[in-house]
Write a structure and sequence with these properties.
By secondary structure, this protein is an alpha/beta fold. The chain has three domains: about 80 residues, Beta Barrel (OB fold (Dihydrolipoamide Acetyltransferase, E2P)); about 160 residues, P-loop containing nucleotide triphosphate hydrolases (Rossmann fold, 3-Layer(aba) Sandwich); about 80 residues, Probable gtpase engc, domain 3 (Ribonucleotide Reductase Protein R1, domain 1, Orthogonal Bundle). The strands form three sheets. It has a six-stranded mixed sheet with strand order 10-9-8-11-13-12. Strands 1-2-3-5-4 form a five-stranded mixed barrel. The longest helix has about 45 residues. It is globular. About 35% of the residues are buried.
C-alpha cells in the first residue's frame, strides 16, 4: 500500500460526506486516514501518503472511554511526525459502528468496526451451525443500520440441506444467504460480486468458521495485513485479538475479526427484535398495545405459536434476546446515573477544596 504515488482513498470509502465532517473539525488542515489495524498501544493508519503507525494524544487517550477510542474502520485526523509515524489528534464522528457487549460486564460495550456497510455473519456447516447465534448477530447488526449477510461456509462438507434451509427460512427476509467453500471457487463468485467498490464489509462469527480463509480467497491472495512492529517496545502483533482491514482489488474493503465465544447484545431499541424475527405482524394484532407476549389474554404472538404459524424456537429466542436487551438498557441507564452522581461529587469536592 505504501508507494510513491498517492493512495486513492475512495477505494477505502472516503467520500464527500466524510470530507464535510473533516471540514467541521478544528484540525481540518491535518491529513486524514482510516484505521486498518488496532494494536495494543498504537494504530495503523492508511492515508493518501501511505501507511502510518500512530499513537493517541493524551487528551484522546485519557479523555475517552474504551468504547470511544478508535477502532478498525474509524476515520481520523493525524499529525505526521516523520516518514511513517504520527499522532492521532481527532476522530471523525462515527457512523454504522458494530458493537458488542464487553465480556464480563452488563453495561459496557466494545466497538468492533466503524463505517461498516455490510456485515457477513459467517458460520460453518458443521457443528458450528447455530441459527440462534445467527439471530443474535443479525439483530445487533440491524440495530446499527448495517446490512447483515449470512454466509454458510464449508459447503463442501456433508450437511442436511433441507434442515438448514428450514432453520434459516425466517432470516431470509432480513438478509441474503450465501453457501460458500474456499475449495469450490465458483461458490465465492456471487459473494464477491455483492461487495461494491468503496464498501466496507466486516466478517463476524465464531473461531474456526473460516473467516480469514474467506478473506484471502476473495482477495485471491494471502491478503491480511501484517505490520512489522518492534516487540521490544511492547507494540507487537496480537493476532488473537486484533481486527484488521484489507483491500479487495476492484472492490471494497474487508475487515477480518477474531472469533468470539460470546456476542452480547447492546440494543438501545429492544422493540427492533419483533421486526427482525418476523414477529411484528403478530404483535400488532395483540389485544393490548403493551402486550409482553408472555401470558397475556388476547396475545396474537402466543396464538401464532399455538397455531403453528410461528416457530416455538424463534419465539423462545425472541424472549431470551429481549430479556438480554432490556437488562443491558436498564443497566446502562443505572450506569449513567452513577457516573453523573460521581461527577457531581467530584465537582463539589473541587469547590470545597477551593474554599
Amino acid at each position: 500500500m505504501c508507494n510513491e504515488n498517492k493512495t486513492d482513498m475512495t477505494r477505502y470509502g472516503w467520500n464527500n460526506s466524510l470530507r464535510q465532517l473533516q471540514q467541521a473539525s478544528i484540525h481540518k488542515t491535518l491529513p486524514y486516514g482510516r484505521v486498518t489495524v488496532v494494536h495494543r498501544t498504537c494504530y495503523d493508519i492508511i492515508s493518501e501518503n501511505g501507511l502510518f503507525q500512530c499513537e493517541l494524544t493524551g487528551n484522546m487517550l485519557y479523555g475517552k472511554s474504551a468504547a470511544e477510542l478508535p477502532c478498525t474502520g474509524d476515520w481520523v485526523l493525524f499529525q505526521p511526525l516523520d516518514e511513517d509515524k504520527g499522532i492521532i489528534v481527532d476522530m471523525l464522528p462515527r457512523e454504522r459502528t458494530l458493537y458488542r457487549r464487553k465480556s464480563g460486564t452488563v453495561a459496557d460495550k466494545q466497538a468492533i468496526a466503524a463505517y461498516v456497510d455490510k456485515a457477513f455473519i459467517v458460520q460453518s456447516l458443521d457443528d458450528n451451525f447455530n441459527v440462534r447465534r445467527a439471530e443474535r448477530f443479525m439483530v445487533q447488526i440491524l440495530e446499527e443500520k448495517i446490512q447483515p449477510v449470512l454466509v454458510l461456509n464449508k459447503a463442501d462438507l456433508a450437511f442436511d440441506s433441507a434442515a438448514v434451509t428450514a432453520a434459516i427460512q425466517h432470516l431470509r427476509h432480513q438478509m441474503p444467504v450465501f453457501f460458500t467453500s474456499i475449495h469450490q471457487p465458483e461458490t465465492l463468485l456471487a459473494l464477491k460480486a455483492s461487495i461494491a467498490a468503496g464498501e466496507t464489509v466486516v466478517f463476524t462469527g465464531s473461531s474456526g468458521v473460516g473467516k480469514s480463509s474467506l478473506v484471502n480467497a476473495l482477495c485471491d491472495q494471502q491478503a491480511l495485513l501484517t505490520s512489522h512492529i518492534s516487540e521490544s517496545t511492547g507494540k507487537g502483533r496480537h493476532t488473537s485479538t486484533r481486527r484488521e482491514m484489507v483491500l479487495m482489488e476492484g472492490a471494497g474493503v474487508l475487515i477480518d475479526t477474531p472469533g468470539v465465544r460470546e456476542f452480547g447484545l447492546v440494543l438501545d431499541n429492544p422493540d427492533l427484535l419483533e421486526q427482525a424475527l418476523e414477529i411484528s405482524d403478530y404483535a400488532a394484532a395483540c389485544r393490548f398495545r403493551d402486550c409482553q407476549h408472555i401470558n397475556e389474554a388476547g396475545c396474537a404472538v402466543i396464538a401464532a405459536v399455538q397455531d403453528g404459524n410461528l416457530d416455538p424456537k424463534v419465539y423462545e429466542s425472541y424472549l431470551k434476546l429481549r430479556r438480554e436487551a432490556w437488562h443491558y438498557s436498564a443497566s446502562k441507564q443505572e450506569k449513567k446515573k452513577w457516573e453523573k452522581s460521581l461527577s457531581r461529587m467530584v465537582e463539589e469536592a473541587k469547590n470545597i477544596s477551593k474554599h
